[in-house]
Each structure stands twice: as structure tokens, then as C-alpha cells.
Amino acid sequence: MARKELPDAPKGAPRSLGGLLPFLRPYRWQIALAGLFLLLAAAATLLFPVALRHLVDAGMATGPGASGGTPDPVASGERLLALRGYFLWLFAVAVALGLFSAARFYTVTWLGERVTADLRTAIYRHVLRQSPEFFETTQTGEVLSRLTTDTTLVQTVVGSSLSLGLRNAVMGLGAVAMLVWSHPQVMGLVLGVVVGVVLPARWFGSRVRRLSRASQDRVADSSAIAAEVLNAIPVVQSHAAEGREGSRFAQATENAFATGVRRTRARAALVAFIIITSAALMLWGMYQGTLAVMAGSLSPGQLGQAVVYVILLAGSVAALGEVYGDLLRAAGATERLMELLHAQSPVAEPVEPLSSPVPVKGSRVQLEALTFHYPSRPQTPALDHVDLAVAPGETVALVGASGAGKTTVFQLLLRFYDPQTGRILMDGVSIDRLSLAELRGRIAIVPQEPVIFSSSAMDNIRYGRPEASDDEVRSAARAAYAEEFITRLPEGYDTFLGERGVRLSGGQRQRIAIARAILKNPPLLLLDEATSALDAESERMVQAALETAMRGRTTLVIAHRLATVQRADRIVVLDQGRLVESGTHAELLALGGTYARLAQLQFLE
Hints:
CATH topology of the largest domain: ABC transporter transmembrane region fold
CATH class of the largest domain: Mainly Alpha
Largest sheet: 6 strands, mixed
Order of helices and strands: HHHHHHHHHEEEHEEHEHHHHEHEHEEHH
Structural class: alpha/beta
Number of strands: 10
Radius of gyration: 36 Å
Number of helices: 19
Shape: elongated
Distance between the termini: 39 Å
């Protein structure tokens, strides 16, 4: 399936990082604390050249004997004390710089970890609420790539690069201010840095950003292939397709590599340009300062101070170029994450949900003039003006050829989709007026291929009702004829069942799913013919479990076998999305219509 192209966010480069603001606001005090430590560390760095200037001018370059005269012991002692004082000052500055830098590092790293964890959780919870329409066009591997690779990039920026960028920005501005204050003649150098470095860097940066987004998309493509194939390993191996699938993944990986190389090449050019230009400007400034010292208009200490500030400025600009590349990559990642977070499910919670008492003997279900087209097949109706009423406690079998609309009825009852016209009522209330949790809490489904999670048998049965006690779980397992094989497992109910229940047979997986439905105890049960792919012994056990599950509740069954059809109170026949016949097995056979033809082809032995 082709990867869904979600709409792009505004192409504002690092501005796209604004999507992270809602995740940063709860930690404003931690951000303020990190900012304080950042400013203090930058201030300590900017004080270092001042201390160095006094050390050179007052401690080393002045006093008797500095130019070859007879040393004065008293003056030498004073100079030695002054020298020690300047070194102690430099050491104090270094200690302050170390402590404030460590505090800043811890705070921003904590922020990066915290914000990334919140972002991953928010996106995962949001994706879980998307309707199946979302997953028709978006591969699971694409979502996983965004949750892992993209959030890791965001973590790098929030927990490191952003702080480093702010630190260098503050230091660069501070160095400029100190240079302008102490050496106004360097203003031309400052303007040269701005015009000669920053403006061209923006042009390079826009290309890096575009390639970063493309690189992340290609990585997502390879992740999607891997997720799809690893979930179908038996099918791949049964068709001896390991080589083909390996080649397909290798090609996707090569595409990601090629795009990554182009991104890296552009970023390397950006870094080289910034470093070379900054170095040229710095050397030019040092040359001019050396000439001033030789002319006597500048002291050696002042030159040293200016050189250090120029080095700080050039280093800050070079570091900002590196950080800008990280910001561009993270901007692309943030755009992709925000696309997921802002994806709107067409199935919405009601603004003011209604509630109704849960019936004791099963729900009353009514389908009124129901018409529905799948988003991927807008021209073909899956259901076409279907009317159906199911009484409380009644068992109704849905029969029809493949594509007749049987599964669609189940999906609309669960509100995986909403119909284009018509409505569904449960116990007299339109289901779109019930909260999704309440609606789905009243329904249990046993699919043809049950889903078993990578956990214990106890947890799998309890999945639909997590507050159930262990005794209630065991009771449901007994009712589903599952306790016998569960107790034979190595650790009984606590046995890990493996990914997708690979340690169980098909019939055992079905009985686990039926036990799950029995424990949930809903007024409406949906059965997607749970015995169609089982052997005779497993079918007998599962059929007995199903009869227990159906007792005392309304049941809709997608039927493929004669035994299931004959147990139903009523049979409804669907054909190309239309309800064409309704009645008992004998009545429909007597009609000689669609059901009679299906019975001859599929049901009769």
C-alpha cells in the first residue's frame, strides 16, 4: 500500500518547532532555571577575557624589571601577590563556568527526556483513537518510524542542540557587546560576520531542511516494509520470498542512504562555509589588532582580550551553524509528528453524550436506511439503504457472498466508521449520541482470526474488563471450555502466550477470545464465524463455547456454515450491500432465492 502523503506544515524551517510549545509549557519553571544557568555560564565565559587582560597588563607586562632594569624586591612581591590574585580570579571564573554548565546540562537533558516522553505518549494515544480509515492509507511502520526516529531527533534538539544554540547565541551577542564597548573599531568585523556568514547560511539551511525531511520519509518507508514483513513471516517463508523481501528492504534502505548522503553533503558544505568564513574574519581582526599594538595604540592585554572575544564570536557563529543544521532536521521531524498529532478522526465523540441503562436480556438494535461507502471505494456502496431490527436476546445470522456487506455492519455498529446516510440505534439511542467508550463497552466481538496479545493467558482474557478478579477470569475460561488447555500450559494462567498467540492452536486462540467476550458480559455479541477455519474437534469445542457466550444476549453472527445458520432465530441475506431476504432457514429455502442458491453452494453437505 502506498504511504499516505499527509499535508505539509508551513515551510518555516525552525519555525516548525513551534509545534513543541504545548509540550514545553508545563515545564516553564525548569526552562527558566535552565535559562538562568545558561546566562550565568555565558557570563562566566565572557568574564574570562577581562581577567586575562588584567593578568597580561597588570601582572606580566608592567613594573620595574619588565624591560630589563634592576628588579625591586618590594615591587616584585606586590606583583607576585597581584599575579596570584589574577590566577585565583581566573580559577574562580573556571569553577563558576563548570558548575553553571553542569547545572545547565542536567536541566536541559532532563527537559529533552521529559518532553520526548510526553510527545511519544500524546501521539501514541492520539493514533489509538484514529478510525480504521486512517490506517487504510497510513502504514503501521510509518507511524512507528515517527514515534521512534523523529522523536529521537526532537529529543536531541530539546535536550542538547537548542540549549547549545541559545548558549552560543548569548555568548556571541555578549562577545559583540564587549567588543563594541572595548574596541568600537571592530564594528566592521561584526557586520562582516553577520553579512558574510549568517545570510548565506540561511540559503544553505533551507536546502538542508528539505533534504532532512526527505531523508526521514525514506527511513519511514524502510521501517514500514520491515513492520509489514515481520508481521507476516510464516507467509513470507512459505513462499520462499526471503530473498525478494530482503532485496526490497535493501532497496528502500539504499534510497534512505542516498537521500541521507545528499543531506550530509549539503550540511557539510554549510559547516565548511561557516568555519572558513569565520576563521578568515577572525584572522583579519587579529592582524589589525597586531598592527595597533605595534603602533602603540593598543596594549598587549587589550589585544589578547579582543582576540579571545573574536574567537568566542567566531566559535559561536560556527557552533550556531552546526546547531542550525540540527534544528532543520528536527523541524522536519516535528512537522511529521505534528501531522500525526493533528490528524482528525472522522468518527468524533458526541459533544454531549447521552446514556441509557444497560439492558439485562440483550440490546435492541435498529438499522434505519443505512447507506455507507468506504473512503477507499467512494463509488461502490458497501451498504445500500439497509433496514434491520433485532429484538433483545435475538440471534440473527448475516449471510451473503463475499463483499455483500456483512463485516461492514459490524464495523458500523462499533463506530469504526459513520454511515453517509441513515442511522443505527441501540436500545432506542442513536449510537453517535453515545460516547465511544460506552458504546463499545456494550459490545463484544469474536473475530474469525482472534488477536492474542504478547502477555499471559490471564491478561489476554482480562483485556476487555481489566478490573475483573482472577476468579472471574477462571470462570469465564471454564465457560469458554478453555481452562483445560490453559492449566496444561507450563505456568497455567500466567503462561506467556507469545506474539500473536503463536504458542496456541487456532481453536485455543478462539476459546481465549470467547472467554474474553464472556468476561466482558456485553448485551450485544458480534461473532464473525469463529469456526470456519477449525478442524472438527476444535469446532465442536468452540461451538459449545459460543453457545455459552450467546446465552442471554443479543447476537449477530456472520455465518458461513449450516450449523451456525440453523441455530439462529432469524437469517438476514445481504447481496451487494442490500438486504434482500429475511426469515428462517426453512422459509428462505422455500423462497428459492439468493439464500437457497448460497445454501446449495456453501451450506448443504
